[in-house]
Amino acid sequence: EYLDWDFERNKSYIWSITPYVFGPDAEFTIRNATGYERTASFHSSFYYYLNPWNYPGPRLSTQTWEEEKVGYVYIKSFWLDYIDMDYSVLMDYYRQVEDFDYLIFDIRGNSGGSTNYWYLSIVQPLLKHTGPVESYLAIRTSDYVNYFREGKGLTNKIAKNGFAYLPSEVLSDDFDLYDFSYVINPVSSEINFNGKIILLTDKGVYSSAEAFAVFCKQTEFATIYGTATGGDGIGYDPVLFVLPNSKLVLRFPSVMGLDNTGHANEEVRTQPDVFYESALGNFSELINYVRVNLP
Fold first, then answer.
1. Which residues lie closer than 8 Å to 88 by C-beta, 6 or more apart?
2. Are 55 and 283 in contact (CB under 8 A)?
3. 45, 136, 264, 274: which has the fewest Cβ within 10 Å?
4. Where is 287: in which H helix or E strand?
5. Is 51 exposed, middle or buried (0-12, 13-18, 19+ CB in 10 A)?
6. pLDDT tens string 2-35
7. Shortest CA distance to 234 belongs to which of 179, 166, 293, 159?
8. In DSSP terms, which residues pair with 256 in a beta bridge?
């Protein structure tokens, strides 16, 4: 595993460990969110894996609390193949909760898919005001990478001296900086939901799901509850490179996506407006917390 950064505790951590690497006699100190602590050994077999994050089974599900006037939608993935099918389901649900005060979108564990999914199925039907998102791409000056940049039509190179912060790599001559900002305008929609929108996130939110979190954070389309996301929401699809002798094809990111503060999105992620860390494996805890503490 690689080291990640815990923004709340300001220290490094790893998402998981593999006990067999440490040997059968290794002892681990375990401490939960309430402060309970004990020592344990794990006699696990090679490659045995248990997913501690208890995400619900259905890929798309809804729940309604009529008395509280709160609607809830869980979306496990934004895969392109599901856009048409999910669009009709979501539109029907929006009609059911049109006069509600709150609508919660839960994308915890959503590793992405297509940006068009959330744009067409969530933002376009519900957006009331123009949503500008300020973002930038740091791109290496190599000819190969820029071949793909030109193919994407990215030509608006900008100066680096207008930023209070940029990563040290970007400040070097090895990178150029390009404007990747965009604006989403509201469209005429049959849905007239005027309540508040809430987004639930965790570190499993990645790629196009992270792009949705970035949009919500900058435009205030939704108030974000939970923990920091997983990143990689600013940029475009990876590019391919063929090794000359073996002919193996490698896929790699060709850009570094920067947010409106000049920080790399893959590094700083999207931070929640309201931080809440649930107990491990307790999926409903954050939902219940939000329902009790609605803004």
1. none
2. yes
3. 45
4. helix 284-292
5. exposed
6. 788 899 999 998 877 777 788 878 898 988 777 8
7. 179
8. 138
Spatial contact of 131 and 215, defined as CB atoms under 8 Å apart: yes
Residue 20, beta-bridge partner list: none
For the chain, the residue count is 295
C-alpha distances (whole Å) from 277 to each of 52, 147, 200, 286 are 14, 43, 11, 8
Determine the Cα–Cα distance for residues 83 and 117; give it in Å rounded to an integer: 6
Q: What percent of the chain has pLDDT over 90?
A: 76
Report the alpha-carbon distance of residue 48 to residue 94 in Å, rounded: 42
Determine the Cα–Cα distance for residues 74 and 59; give it in Å rounded to an integer: 8
Q: How are beta strands 196-201 and 223-226 bridged, if at all?
A: parallel
CA dihedral 213, 215, 219, 225 (to 10 degrees): 0
Question: Is-contact 256 28, C-beta < 8 A?
Answer: no
CA distances from 4 to 1, 228, 269 (A): 9, 12, 11
Question: What is the average pLDDT across 198-207?
Answer: 96
Alpha-carbon distance of 156 to 200, in angstroms, equals: 34
Q: Are 279 and 285 in contact (CB under 8 A)?
A: yes
pLDDT at 116: 94
Q: How many CB atoms lie within 10 A of CB 152?
A: 16
28 contact partners, CB below 8 Å, separation of at least 6: 17, 19, 39, 40, 41, 42
Q: How far apart are CA 202 and CA 278, in angstroms?
A: 10
> Tens digit of pLDDT for each residue in 261-273?
999 999 999 999 9
| Contact indicator for 236, 139 with CB cutoff of 8 Å | no
And the tokens for 4?
């990640």
Closest to 135 measured CA to CA, from 231, 228, 223, 226: 231
